[in-house]
Structures are given as C-alpha cells and as structure tokens.
Write a structure and sequence with these properties.
- The protein is an alpha+beta fold and 120 residues long.
- Helices cover 23% and strands 31% of the residues.
- It has one domain: Transcriptional regulator MraZ domain (Chemotaxis protein chec, 3-Layer(aba) Sandwich), CATH 3.40.1550.
- The strands form 2 sheets. Strands 1-7-8-4-3-5 form a 6-stranded antiparallel β-sheet. A two-stranded antiparallel ribbon has the order 2-6.
Length: 120
C-alpha cells in the first residue's frame, strides 16, 4: 500500500505555447494567484522560481495564464511545446517550473533503479 501524502504541494504539467505562456488553473489557484497578480521570476539550478510580489515586474495575464519572459525561457532551454512540471508550494507562496532537462537530472537515479529491476 502506498504511503499517504504528507505534503500540500499541488502539481501540474503544462505545455509552453508560442508566446511563452503556461496555464494550470489548479496550480495557480492553490497559490491564490488570479489574473493580474504581480510576480517576480528567477532561475535557480535550472528551475524557474516564481513568487507573488506586489512590486513584481511580471504579472499573470488577464486570462490567468503565466507568461515566462524570453530570457528566462532561453536560460532554461525551454522551447514552444515543451512541457514543464509545475509544483506549487502554498505554505511558501512559491511556484517552481521544472523544464524537461531538469526533470531528467532530478529523476535519473530513480528511473535507473526502477528500470534496472530493483525489487523494492
């Protein structure tokens, strides 16, 4: 039997459109982010880190999507159609957007263990 969840993290998976937008109402709602919410975006360890900040230079679109600026997308190697894993941490007010290359690195050991037949 799987262990019960002990986290309040909300997860989503969203494809980046040609304008750099990602959309996941469940994840954004978990953070209380609505259209026009002001945000600050940084890149740390090849992951996009986003927090709400009334003085932020970025904002959720009027439709409630998140548009990642081109420099952020380029720094993370994101292209149109790439799917990003979104993890909302409501207790910290932070959204992490993990690009595919970062997911490869984060999951390499677990996938190797599973694919090589670990009986656990």
């Amino acid at each position: 039997m799987p262990a019960p969840r002990t986290s309040t993290v909300a997860y989503g998976l969203s494809a980046l459109d040609c304008h750099g937008r990602i959309a996941d109402r469940t994840v954004f709602s978990a953070l209380g982010w609505e259209p026009e919410t002001r945000l600050v975006v940084n890149v740390t360890h090849a992951t996009v880190v986003i927090v709400a900040d009334p003085n932020g230079t970025l904002a959720m679109t009027g439709h409630g999507d998140l548009r990642l600026p081109a420099p952020v997308r380029h720094r993370c190697g994101l292209a149109t159609g790439d799917r990003v894993l979104l993890s909302a941490h409501p207790d910290r007010g932070v959204l992490l957007a993990h690009p595919p290359a970062q997911l490869d690195r984060l999951l390499a050991d677990a996938h190797s263990t599973l694919l090589d037949g670990d009986p656990a």
